[in-house]
Design brief:
A hairpin with a 2-residue loop joins strand 4 and strand 5. This protein has three helices and seven strands. The protein starts with 26 loop residues before the first helix and ends in a 10-residue tail after the last helix. The chain is of the alpha+beta class and 174 residues long. 30% of the residues are buried. The structure holds nickel (II) ion (NI).
Length: 174
């Protein structure tokens, strides 16, 4: 049974926490990853970090497949081994910073070591969208949001507007 969890949005100090390494991948972690994927799909996101649902564990999930066929990827304790000097730019958004998008430059290629859904040690070479997505999600594990890369003025404006929302809409699944 998978549960759709509440996604925490900026401004919220929880999003600024540094997440803690996972000791071992067991049923509890797998249930968390299932819930994270379900939550991400329901919100139409392509990546989610555990801290975004209030759990300070170093776990991220990603699915960048486009053809309607799911391709869930789970990363526990991810670390970047190698990255490109060459940068690539995407217009990024974030489920924790609803309705704002901004161009962010990130290394075009990265090599990431992690434990997968079954707790097996893996190394993945990622480039383009996947590399950007992994780096965006890994930032969440350090308490960093993509708006932190913007000018102070632009960031302040976004956070101010987000805090002014009186009745943020409920997330509904229909
Ligand atoms: Ni995000």
């Amino acid at each position: 049974m998978m549960t759709i969890r509440n996604i925490i949005t900026e401004p919220n100090e929880i999003l600024r926490q540094v997440s803690k390494p996972v000791q071992a991948v067991g049923n509890e972690e797998r249930k968390l990853m299932d819930d994270m994927l379900e939550t991400m799909y329901a919100a139409n996101g392509i990546g989610l970090a555990a801290i975004q649902i209030g759990i300070p564990k170093r776990i991220i999930v990603i699915d960048i497949s486009k053809d309607g066929k799911k391709n869930p990827m789970c990363f526990v304790n991810p670390t970047i081994k190698n990255k490109d000097k060459e940068k690539t730019t995407y217009e990024e958004g974030c489920l924790s910073v609803p309705n704002y998008f901004a161009e962010v430059d990130r290394p075009k290629y990265c090599e990431v070591e992690y434990l997968d859904y079954n707790g097996e040690n893996k190394i993945l070479e990622a480039e383009g969208l996947l590399a950007t997505c992994i780096q965006h999600e890994m930032d969440h594990l350090e308490g960093i949001l993509f708006i932190d890369y913007l000018s102070k003025l632009k960031k302040t404006m976004i956070v101010k507007k987000l805090s002014k929302r009186k009745n943020p809409p409920d997330r509904i699944i229909v």
